[in-house]
Amino acid sequence: MKAGMFHETRAIPGSRSPYELESNVAGLGIDESSLISILGKLHPEQKQSFRKGTRDFFTEDDRLFERWDERHIAQLQHEFLRFKNAMVLWTMHPWERDARLAKEALRKGQQAYGVLVEIACTRSSEELLGARRAYHSLFDHSIEEDVAVHIHGIERKLLVALVSSYRYEGPRVHEETARSEAKILHNAFKAADKTKPIEDEEVVRILTTRSKLHIKAISTHYKEFSSSDITEDLDTELLLKQTLQCLYTPETYFSTVLDSALKDGADETTREALTRVIVTEANNVDMKKIKEEYHQKYGVDLSEKISGVANGNYRDFLLTLVARGD
Amino acid sequence: MKAGMFHETRAIPGSRSPYELESNVAGLGIDESSLISILGKLHPEQKQSFRKGTRDFFTEDDRLFERWDERHIAQLQHEFLRFKNAMVLWTMHPWERDARLAKEALRKGQQAYGVLVEIACTRSSEELLGARRAYHSLFDHSIEEDVAVHIHGIERKLLVALVSSYRYEGPRVHEETARSEAKILHNAFKAADKTKPIEDEEVVRILTTRSKLHIKAISTHYKEFSSSDITEDLDTELLLKQTLQCLYTPETYFSTVLDSALKDGADETTREALTRVIVTEANNVDMKKIKEEYHQKYGVDLSEKISGVANGNYRDFLLTLVARGD
């Protein structure tokens, strides 16, 4: 292989340039059928660009191509994995799935704490408990043990208590208590000069132990003390805001997450939520609510939006899951 | 009824004086058979002394008798209740039993926090969870919710986390971690001038999330840093000491509790532990260990000691339960 060779190769008439190929791995997932046809027609020299060469062999100019190539192969592999991962996640028992998602979130650190909140607050008490059981057998630790060991920041108290919760799910709500706790939250959220709300013991107590219906009642009473919605007063306290949303309007939370994941230029952590949310919520009665909320909020059908952003098998699979509730 | 009447009554030859009767309701429970024979022989005037009279009717001297009488009737009722309560507790499903014991402990406040620790730390993860489930259906709240609402002192963090725990119960223990956490505990226990150990976040984290085997390993490694046993260094931190004992040597903990309950002059809260411990541990494989530990520590058989202190049906019932494991 000689320096300069790829310049000629790229110029072969009738063959696709790497830049054309790139457009076929754009978006989420792989457009398998067009990829098959393109790769099948590639010249041998072009095919070599899909394998990793010895870097030192190339001139500066070739390295440019090589870098494109490496990045491209990584992306190809990554996009192939998207379909595989979705299939694997879907096949897992929901408890194992949540246990593995929690473990992965702990591995990733702060940027993924939201996944812990999502698992702890949008599942039913029994589902969360199932995830804790699965976590024992998979990882030889309890989930709260790992959260407590790995998280050192101010989020620790909230997150440990959230994953340990086993909330009451009956209909009983004591309105007077809900009202007085709405006041407690309001005072804590508004007192920006004092303790941060996430470090306020009463805030953590209320959000981590009260039933979802009770929290809903709190959000209603909150309007007696504030002109804004309870989550609006938390715009700078993302984890608390997310906790509240997950607890009392999960469909709003999920729609927002899906919207971010489907946006142009989203980073990979944000992108990954697409698979996670669609797969975990597909069997859930709330999928219908999520779709309604998404449509209302963003003026487009969730399925349509997914069709526009995702490719091939990955897209088809997601669309099948999204359509399950219909 | 005339002033002075009881003086005569008490003097009726052949009848028992109230002071004789008193000896028949001494000890725990009621000696039903001798009570039947005594009460059956009482004169009508004496029997009246078992009913509550109108206080104002009596002279000062009669009131003395009346007070004895009221106290005595209360004690009688109380000792009758001991057998009834033991039977009722025994008949309950263990989950319901623990849920009700926890509720009762919360009602009683600080002096009974130990019962919460006992339930949270001597049961298996699944048993504790069962109690949490039962608590939902019985009291329309989660147990951690009620603990968090009712307890405001420095014990809150520890107790909320203890009742929320779902500890890993597999065999895997990471010795290096256990060793480093033994050091953390040692530093916290010895630094008496700083934060109280119960307020130390790391102490609470370790005691509330680690598996029992891990805590056992910690207690072994602790000896590398201290000449004393881990619980000896906690003699002024009763709740932490009890937590540790319940977690890694429940038989030691239960023997101590039984010994206190069976001591002369124990107060009622301490006394009550007798029924609780015997009833809850009767079906437990550890009852045998508790008996061995008790015998070794106090030089007398647990059954013998119970025979000496308790009466009648209550005694017979406890002895039957204690003998179940043999």
TrEMBL record, chains A, B:
<dbReference type="GO" id="GO:0005544">
    <property type="term" value="F:calcium-dependent phospholipid binding"/>
</dbReference>
<keyword id="KW-0479">Metal-binding</keyword>
<feature type="binding site">
    <location>
        <position position="27"/>
    </location>
    <ligand>
        <name>Ca(2+)</name>
    </ligand>
</feature>
<keyword id="KW-0041">Annexin</keyword>
<dbReference type="InterPro" id="IPR037104">
    <property type="entry name" value="Annexin_sf"/>
</dbReference>
<protein>
    <recommendedName>
        <fullName>Annexin</fullName>
    </recommendedName>
</protein>
<dbReference type="InterPro" id="IPR009118">
    <property type="entry name" value="AnnexinD_plant"/>
</dbReference>
<keyword id="KW-0677">Repeat</keyword>
<dbReference type="GO" id="GO:0009408">
    <property type="term" value="P:response to heat"/>
</dbReference>
<dbReference type="GO" id="GO:0009414">
    <property type="term" value="P:response to water deprivation"/>
</dbReference>
<feature type="binding site">
    <location>
        <position position="29"/>
    </location>
    <ligand>
        <name>Ca(2+)</name>
    </ligand>
</feature>
<keyword id="KW-0111">Calcium/phospholipid-binding</keyword>
<dbReference type="GO" id="GO:0005737">
    <property type="term" value="C:cytoplasm"/>
</dbReference>
<dbReference type="GO" id="GO:0005886">
    <property type="term" value="C:plasma membrane"/>
</dbReference>
<dbReference type="InterPro" id="IPR001464">
    <property type="entry name" value="Annexin"/>
</dbReference>
<dbReference type="GO" id="GO:0009409">
    <property type="term" value="P:response to cold"/>
</dbReference>
<dbReference type="GO" id="GO:0001786">
    <property type="term" value="F:phosphatidylserine binding"/>
</dbReference>
<feature type="binding site">
    <location>
        <position position="265"/>
    </location>
    <ligand>
        <name>Ca(2+)</name>
    </ligand>
</feature>
<dbReference type="GO" id="GO:0009651">
    <property type="term" value="P:response to salt stress"/>
</dbReference>
<dbReference type="InterPro" id="IPR018502">
    <property type="entry name" value="Annexin_repeat"/>
</dbReference>
<keyword id="KW-0106">Calcium</keyword>
<dbReference type="Pfam" id="PF00191">
    <property type="entry name" value="Annexin"/>
</dbReference>
<dbReference type="GO" id="GO:0005509">
    <property type="term" value="F:calcium ion binding"/>
</dbReference>
